[in-house]
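Appendix B. One record, verbatim.
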Amino acid sequence: MSEKAYKGQWVKIHNIILEPSQRAPGVPEDTQKCPLEMWLNGFLDQDEASLGEQVAIKTVIGRTVKGKLTEIEPKYDHSFGKPIMELLTIGPKVRAFIEKGDSNER
């Protein structure tokens, strides 16, 4: 992967929205100790930039946002976690129950 991004390339930026000292007093203590951070993907809106530089991006909805360039052509790597066996097996059990019918019916 290149260390330089070019205009129109898909990138990720990072910003600190609130420093710990700026957090609301009502948030939990462990949350108050951490900055509020933002990561945002968009298209680089300048000729070129290197990782770590402050850049402007244009989001897919057309907003222009500035932040530190952290990744070039980022991928989505989220998941829905491990499968839950009870949820995987309940469908066939319910179908069998419905097809068999309630013995108190009739």
